[in-house]
Amino acid sequence: MHTFSTLKDDLSRSGLSPSDTVLVHSSMKSIGEVEGGADTVLDVLMDYFGKTGLLVFPTLTYTIYGEERKVFSPEKTPSVVGLLTEMFRKREGVVRSLHPTHSVAAFGKDAEEFCRGHEAFSTPCARKSPWGKLYDRNAKLLFIGTKSISCCTFFHGVEEFLPVPGMFGKEPYDLLLEREDGSFRHIPSFRHEGHHNKYYFLAEPLLREKGALEDASFGDAHCFLLEAKASADILLALLKKNPFFFTEEYQEKETRS
To answer: pLDDT tens for residues 182-235?
Structure first.
């Protein structure tokens, strides 16, 4: 059985520094049996990074696109990307950004500054949003127990930085942000189209070759450890040559040829 101490040792062996900004994609089941369960996992991560670094989880809520009344409440709307993300956002001291579909939750020395202003952007992962700040801070992306890096929301941001042609719908959705006083703010937001993340795993060999992607372990889970700035620079160079690399049309054409 894994404990607070053994999991903290795993983080130390991974090479991650307590002063790092780290965004975590996670599968709780992959970690194995943990004394204290998911709460202990969060205790470890918050203790390790929360004093001098910044711990970030995605708390995405893109399912509201399909709802009749498209309302996002930062306090009440649950994250749809895993148990740890939902538990983390509810913890004391955690700050959640206010974007209606692609919010993040952060804990650490400058969590409020990191999350501030996300709702001002009409796209989910704009360059000056928290997703772009991961690049500016040379953050680390820790994938705990994911089968690949295809769940990497940061790569949506990299595609937005160019931007990749055709990655947004033609018209914005009228989304509503529920304020603390119960009033609402209208936020027009363009949705990502094309399911490009389906093919992000194809970048893994190149990222490894360039030294931006390494392996680690956390409990029973195999982990990917990705450098945000280095991986973004590599993908930007790739996408400038072929902006359609992660599109279904291009990959199907490659498969047929």
So the answer is: 999 999 999 999 889 999 999 999 999 999 999 999 999 999 999 999 999 999
Nearest to 61, CA basis, from 182, 160, 251, 189: 189
Number of Cβ within 10 Å of residue 186's Cβ equals: 9
Q: Where are the beta strands (DSSP E) in 208-256?
A: 213-218, 221-227
Cβ atoms of 238 and 245 within 8 Å: the answer is yes
160-175: per-residue pLDDT in tens? 999 999 999 999 999 9
CA distances from 153 to 81, 170, 241 (A): 11, 21, 22
209 φ, ψ to 5°?
A: -60, -40
Does pTM top 0.90 for this prediction?
yes
Measure the CA–CA gap between 146 and 63, rounded to whole angstroms.
21
In order of 34, 203, 239, 248, the CA distances from 235 in angstroms are 36, 8, 6, 17
Domain ranges (residues) in the chain: 4-256
User: Which tens digits make up the pLDDT trace of 74-116?
Assistant: 999 999 999 999 999 999 999 999 999 999 999 998 999 999 9
Beta bridge partners of 186: 176
Q: Which helix (H) or strand (E) holds 54?
A: strand 54-58
